[in-house]
């Protein structure tokens, strides 16, 4: 494997049973993601974008094929080890922010760091820097319901990168926002990815945003193809 490949998917298969029939969603999908690049995953609804992100992000097991993260094969690892990799190497952003409503923005960003064992003061410092970086430093003490949709999503992005992961997966991160806010949030996400040398795979239906990324891939007949 080349040194700068942070994610490698090889021959990924994923099938779901539906009564008597089997729904084959991924049929030998291959994909590589390199350090520092942002790749758009654009494909029609139901073709398997979320499935691919979940398999790559170690949230689901593939039925066949290999997931390798930073050169480490992840098949056959214990659930405990997979959770540790997910916690330390992978960030996830969803269409809906899934922030904890009873905690402030800054506390939401501190949470994964505290779980990873970082001291409170350091976690707070990094959370504060991330909020500043996302240009919402002044909103840190507010709870999610007191923030706009774009602000909530920027907090969710900051939370996803709080533990300085290697790879960021985002599933329609701006799908719930109006076009102008979507661009603004994507600007912040892009700047963060570029600045930190992360790699990102972002599922989106927004062709304008996809055009701004380094590469575009789709899912065709259960395989990942560049377009
Ligand atoms: N746990 C499951 N059991 C059965 N079928 C499933 C399961 N998860 C996903 N599917 C099916 O697999 C297909 C792909 O789903 P997936 O969510 O990956 O699509 P998607 O491309 O992300 O779609 P969208 O753009 O609408 O979010 C769909 O037909 C879905 O119904």
From TrEMBL:
<dbReference type="InterPro" id="IPR017871">
    <property type="entry name" value="ABC_transporter-like_CS"/>
</dbReference>
<feature type="domain" description="ABC transporter">
    <location>
        <begin position="7"/>
        <end position="227"/>
    </location>
</feature>
<dbReference type="GO" id="GO:0016887">
    <property type="term" value="F:ATP hydrolysis activity"/>
</dbReference>
<dbReference type="InterPro" id="IPR015854">
    <property type="entry name" value="ABC_transpr_LolD-like"/>
</dbReference>
<dbReference type="GO" id="GO:0098796">
    <property type="term" value="C:membrane protein complex"/>
</dbReference>
<dbReference type="GO" id="GO:0044874">
    <property type="term" value="P:lipoprotein localization to outer membrane"/>
</dbReference>
<keyword id="KW-1278">Translocase</keyword>
<dbReference type="InterPro" id="IPR003593">
    <property type="entry name" value="AAA+_ATPase"/>
</dbReference>
<dbReference type="Pfam" id="PF00005">
    <property type="entry name" value="ABC_tran"/>
</dbReference>
<dbReference type="GO" id="GO:0022857">
    <property type="term" value="F:transmembrane transporter activity"/>
</dbReference>
<keyword id="KW-1003">Cell membrane</keyword>
<dbReference type="InterPro" id="IPR027417">
    <property type="entry name" value="P-loop_NTPase"/>
</dbReference>
<comment type="similarity">
    <text>Belongs to the ABC transporter superfamily. Macrolide exporter (TC 3.A.1.122) family.</text>
</comment>
<dbReference type="InterPro" id="IPR003439">
    <property type="entry name" value="ABC_transporter-like_ATP-bd"/>
</dbReference>
<dbReference type="GO" id="GO:0005886">
    <property type="term" value="C:plasma membrane"/>
</dbReference>
<keyword id="KW-0997">Cell inner membrane</keyword>
<keyword id="KW-0547">Nucleotide-binding</keyword>
<dbReference type="InterPro" id="IPR017911">
    <property type="entry name" value="MacB-like_ATP-bd"/>
</dbReference>
<protein>
    <submittedName>
        <fullName>ABC transporter</fullName>
    </submittedName>
</protein>
<keyword id="KW-0813">Transport</keyword>
<keyword id="KW-0472">Membrane</keyword>
<keyword id="KW-0067">ATP-binding</keyword>
<dbReference type="GO" id="GO:0005524">
    <property type="term" value="F:ATP binding"/>
</dbReference>
<dbReference type="GO" id="GO:0089705">
    <property type="term" value="P:protein localization to outer membrane"/>
</dbReference>
